Amino acid sequence: MVKSEVLTLVDQGLRLPLMEEFYTIQGEGFHKGTAAYFIRVGGCDVGCHWCDVKESWNADTHPPTDILHIVKNAATYSDTIVVTGGEPLTWDMGPLTEALKAKNLQTHIETSGAYVLTGTWDWICLSPKKNKLPVGTIYDKADELKVIVYNKHDLIFAEEQAARVNKDCILYLQPEWSVREKVTPLIVDYVMQNPKWKVSLQTHKYLNIP
């Protein structure tokens, strides 16, 4: 298949730049502690300086993989599939989620919301970033809002974002891993004063699992 044909399939969402796929325990947010199969898609231009998977940013370094192959692997391991990145909404998620739902699988996404929401999702984790804010209707559809806290100003940003989500959206503050010892006490105090928020930790890192 020539390169132009491959790129067309990627544009159509029939192939995706697959960085990695693995079966593990969800470490963050509402579903933490539960088994899930993760599909990490390459490509992201949001550019968080503290991102711990910067190798995902350049989609060209990850092979354009047939979504049917991805779905076949996923269905072997788990009923719950988490699509993450990178920024998965860089690509059309419609074909992938259609194929996953055809296998009766639960579809979860972790996204900054920087691109228009595509796909059919059972759970949407919205983790907005200051330098490229969410677009479209994702605020109305998010099941959980997860704001990464790197410094005190991020608490102000968190409140700005919380004001935009739907009333049933669960609100989480999560310390950025590299400064967790500094910001975790700040988050704990804030949640105690503002109990609409919950603390999210990257428990998979404490457990030393992917």
UniProtKB/TrEMBL annotation:
Q: How is the cofactor bound?
A: Binds 1 S-adenosyl-L-methionine per subunit. Binds 1 [4Fe-4S] cluster. The cluster is coordinated with 3 cysteines and an exchangeable S-adenosyl-L-methionine.
Tell me if Coiled coil is a UniProt keyword of this record: no
Q: Which residues bind substrate?
A: I25, Q26, G27, R40, T84, P210
**What does the record give as EC number?**
4.3.99.3
Gene3D superfamilies, per this entry? Aldolase class I
Name the catalysed reactions: 6-carboxy-5,6,7,8-tetrahydropterin + H(+) = 7-carboxy-7-carbaguanine + NH4(+)
GO molecular function terms attached to this record: 4 iron, 4 sulfur cluster binding; carbon-nitrogen lyase activity; magnesium ion binding; S-adenosyl-L-methionine binding
UniProt keyword Cell membrane present: no
Binding site residues for [4Fe-4S] cluster: C44, C48, C51
Q: Which Pfam families match?
A: Radical_SAM (PF04055)
Specify which residues bind S-adenosyl-L-methionine according to the UniProt entry for this protein.
W50, C51, D52, G86, S127, P128, K129
Q: Which GO terms describe its biological process?
A: tRNA queuosine(34) biosynthetic process
Q: Which pathway does this chain act in?
A: Purine metabolism; 7-cyano-7-deazaguanine biosynthesis
Q: Which coenzymes or cofactors are required?
A: S-adenosyl-L-methionine; Mg(2+); [4Fe-4S] cluster
Keywords from the UniProt entry: 4Fe-4S, Iron, Iron-sulfur, Lyase, Magnesium, Metal-binding, Queuosine biosynthesis, S-adenosyl-L-methionine
Primary role = Catalyzes the complex heterocyclic radical-mediated conversion of 6-carboxy-5,6,7,8-tetrahydropterin (CPH4) to 7-carboxy-7-deazaguanine (CDG), a step common to the biosynthetic pathways of all 7-deazapurine-containing compounds.
Q: How does it assemble?
A: Homodimer.
Q: What is this protein called?
A: 7-carboxy-7-deazaguanine synthase
Species name for this entry? Pelagihabitans pacificus
Q: Which gene encodes it?
A: queE
